[in-house]
Design brief:
Length: 195
């Protein structure tokens, strides 16, 4: 039987609020034997996000985005480019599905022909409040396409990377993909199928 955590917040201090709040919490929590003890954690309050693996089953293709991710560059990714699934932040008042439809159009220029939520979870629960919603979607690679490349004014400079499903599987197996949300979606697709 799972016990409810009895957490007592002793103090909260805002360390930064440039884009999203970063706060330092001092709190008490129960230990394994039920005794209370203190701890401090920095928590970054990011809005929830959504990500989608875009698949054209008829043409046996998958569509990814490629853009510079500064954090990866600062941590050893030469050039800073990352190939990943289309993703973005869920705006206030949007459902995850609405956000995903918007992001697909903004980033790729395509509209999904079908979309299904497959799971959700915390990507970094020790210090980040964000929940990410994961989707599989179909698109028509021969169908109408708008500009894409990212939202106006955000400076994303997103490039599209379309590859055969078989190539994506090989790249997944070889460790070529380094973005965890992309790896998770590809593993789900190849283990569970497109159901």
């Amino acid at each position: 039987m799972m016990r409810m955590a009895q957490i007592k917040i002793n103090s909260e201090k805002t360390l930064s609020h440039n884009k999203f709040p970063l706060k330092l919490y001092s709190f008490e929590k129960p230990g394994l034997e039920g005794e209370m003890h203190g701890q401090e954690n920095e928590i970054y309050f990011r809005p929830d996000g959504a990500t989608v693996l875009l698949i054209d089953e008829d043409e046996q293709k998958m569509l990814f985005t490629r853009q510079i991710r500064l954090a990866t560059f600062l941590n050893g990714n030469d050039g800073g480019y990352l190939v990943e699934t289309c993703a973005g932040t869920i705006d206030q008042g949007e459902s995850p599905e609405q956000a995903m439809d918007r992001e697909i159009l903004e980033e790729t220029g395509y509209q999904a022909t079908s979309i299904a939520r497959i799971l959700q979870g915390y990507p970094s629960p020790a210090g980040n409040s964000e929940v990410i919603y994961f989707f599989l979607a179909t698109y028509d690679s021969k169908g109408p396409k708008k500009k894409g490349g990212g939202a106006e004014g955000e400076g994303e400079d997103i490039q599209l990377v379309e590859m055969a499903i078989s190539e994506a599987r090989e790249k997944l197996s070889s460790g070529w993909f380094t973005d965890l949300k992309t790896i998770l979606l590809l593993q789900h697709y190849f283990l569970e199928g497109s159901k």
